[in-house]
Amino acid sequence: MASSVLASQSVLLDTGAQMPLLGLGMYKLAAEEVHCAVDAALAAGYRAFDSAAVYQNEAKLGRALMELLPKYGLTRENVFITSKLGPRDQGEKAMEGALCSLSQLGMDYIDLYLIHWPGTQGLDVADQHNSGNRAQSWAALEDLFIQGKLKAIGVSNFMPAHMRELMLSCKIRPAVLQVEFHPHLCQAELRSMCKEWGVCFQAYTSLGKGELLTDPLVVEVAKSCSRTPAQVLLRWAVQQGIPVLPKSSKPERIKENAGIFDFTLCEDHMEQLSALERGRRFCWDPSQVV
Ligand SMILES: NC(=O)c1ccc[n+]([C@@H]2O[C@H](COP(=O)([O-])OP(=O)(O)OC[C@H]3O[C@@H](n4cnc5c(N)ncnc54)[C@H](OP(=O)(O)O)[C@@H]3O)[C@@H](O)[C@H]2O)c1
Asked: Residue 205: CB within 6 Å of ligand 1?
């Protein structure tokens, strides 16, 4: 599939912006790997990149894009950049943290900025101050949204109770909820809340950090479609309209993970994959954060 076709696969956010269905995940992408991975991703048609203050690669991403966009005839407006407020900046340091992300990226604006985690670094998960700090962070993100520095704002790793609390108190609704999502963790309650409230539900850890690639059913479906297990897992999500962020540092895998828009999984395969649900997480668990 031509990379220009891939680049046009997107979802509409409630801000009116289009967010690509496929983005490059950047967690654990080492600084020295960023340039090569961004180059491979742009070549393969990716137009979205998912970084975070805690990944410590915002500056490398900004520099790589500045150097590489002209090579592909692209400008800043043609790519969608996500970053996230680190848990150590939750609360009164939120404005400073978001401005630091902008400065690290070397950009005038960020397309999507998320509160990374419902808790605050250094506070116990049961500490009641977690809630007030979240509210303070959200107010800072709302200010920066109004100023146009953050084009969309959202949250990550929020559980249903965190979402309800935010929806009751916010002036500006979150555009996106980014959470762990794959056939072993289907997040039914959060998905239905997002649908009801017009929040875009976005998946992370779609490959189970690589572990789901050997799930017997995933392997079997891949064989029957002449696709790879990674493509099956990613297709299962995007076929439900859910944006994905597979991470790889390897150009051939980055290209492979982009090959998800030129085939369809049949209803039986979709249902069988969804039936693998078992509440299994490969990443951090926010359920205890008050
Ligand atoms: N908001 C949050 O709290 C949060 C949490 C976790 C993740 N995320 C976002 O979601 C992204 C993806 O999640 P993730 O990094 O946890 O894991 P993931 O995408 O599920 O899996 C990444 C792992 O799979 C390997 N891999 C990738 N493509 C492959 C392929 N085609 N075949 C075989 N192996 C492959 C990668 O290795 P190589 O690099 O060696 O190829 C890496 O070890 C993150 O990078 C981040 O942007 C957000």
From this structure: yes
In a domain, 13, yes or no: yes
pLDDT tens-digit readout, 37-96? 999 999 999 999 999 999 999 999 999 999 999 999 999 999 999 999 999 999 999 999
CATH number of the structural domain spanning residue 252:
3.20.20.100
Q: How far is the CA of 262 from the centre of ligand 1 (A)?
A: 22
* Residue where the block lists tokens 């150009």: 251
> For residue 284, is it within any domain?
no
**Count of Cβ atoms closer than 10 Å to residue 122 Cβ:** 9
From the candidates 27, 46, 55, 109, give the one annotated as an active-site residue.
55
Q: Is residue 79 part of a domain?
A: yes
For residue 55, indicate whether it is catalytic. yes
In this prediction the pTM is 0.97
Residue with tokens 């949250």: 155
What's the N-to-C CA distance of the chain in angstroms? 45
Is the CB of 157 within 6 Å of ligand 1? yes
Supply the residue whose CA is at minimum distance from atom 24 of ligand 1.
210
In the numeric block, which tokens belong to residue 224? Answer: 């029957």
Domain extent, residue 10, equals: 3-274
